[in-house]
Amino acid sequence: MASNNFRKVFQLTDKNTIRWFPGHMGKGLRQMQQQLKNVDCIIEVHDARLPISGRNPDFKHTIGGLKPHILALNKKDLTDTSLNSKLISDLKRNEGIDHVIYTNCKDHNCKGTKRLMPLAKDLIQNSDRFNRGDSKDFCIMVIGVPNVGKSSLLNVMRNRYLKQPKAAAVGAIAGITRSVMNKIKVSEDPLVYMIDTPGILTPRIADDEMGMKLALCGCLPDHLVGEELIADYLLYWLNRWENFKYVELMGLQEPTDNIMEVLVSGAKLLGRTQKRKHFDGSVAVVADIQSSAQFFVKHFRKGYFGKVNLDAEFPS
Ligand SMILES: Nc1nc2c(ncn2[C@@H]2O[C@H](COP(=O)(O)OP(=O)(O)OP(=O)(O)O)[C@@H](O)[C@H]2O)c(=O)[nH]1
Ligand SMILES: [Mg+2]
User: Fold this and answer.
1) 77 marked ligand binding residue
2) Mean pLDDT across the chain
3) Which residue's alpha carbon is nearest to atom 11 within ligand 1?
4) Where do the annotations place GTP binding (predicted)?
């Protein structure tokens, strides 16, 4: 298939826009607002593969503003930061976020996570601490959308400064942290506490493509959007970048824009089949499309297709 025949836009056929705002998010947001008076600095964690998309605009109104705010673009190991410089300067100009740091919570030597604590201390010391002016300890609240590495970041800090094991549960699916946690000590001298919070999405993700980017990065539960749809967005995205590594991975002969072709081929290659019983009692063996889609998407998330930036403009 000639690459100029690939789709140039990704359209959702279902008119229901992507949304996920379970009860724990509304409650979490309220708890975060209540905690604000005890907080000196906000570290907002976001996925570096989507530096612009999907950040919760509600944070700006409910949480941001008065406290020093650092944006940690995490999972740096999975992204191509060279595609970001314009995006970052736009972010600084349009949103007034002056402090953007790339972090990788999987790397103990990450320069970004090492810079975070001294920067937070500096910002706090130079800020108006309002009611907390007399407090000797510093308190940092970690916020962000689901599955971006908020709890991981807290664990990295605690491990670095206190040599203590994990205090916050971490997991590869969205929605691991369900409520605002008690403050956790991460440093003794100076005394610094961090508050972990549940990932919170905006109640209505108005932009379909933004919803698909979030889904591809695992910020929503896969079953909610549908593994096959996420796989289709991935295929669209790879084709737009002429990244054809999927051809070999999924056992295809050549690039295609047809997701069913990709998934059936992948299922055959992997031997992933399902038995399906017909009304007359006969049993047919069919390709397990869902399992094949999971395999495809999982490879993206592990970095198989290289370092990516979902917000970078497609090459023309
Ligand atoms: N590759 C990579 N994976 C990371 C990094 N940081 C965290 N992860 C992984 O991302 C997943 C989510 O991490 P969590 O720390 O649970 O994320 P969270 O933001 O607390 O998620 P919720 O509590 O669900 O909102 C886990 O599988 C982590 O191991 C990173 O820098 N690079
Ligand atoms: Mg968490």
Assistant:
1) yes
2) 91
3) 172
4) 74-77, 147-152, 199
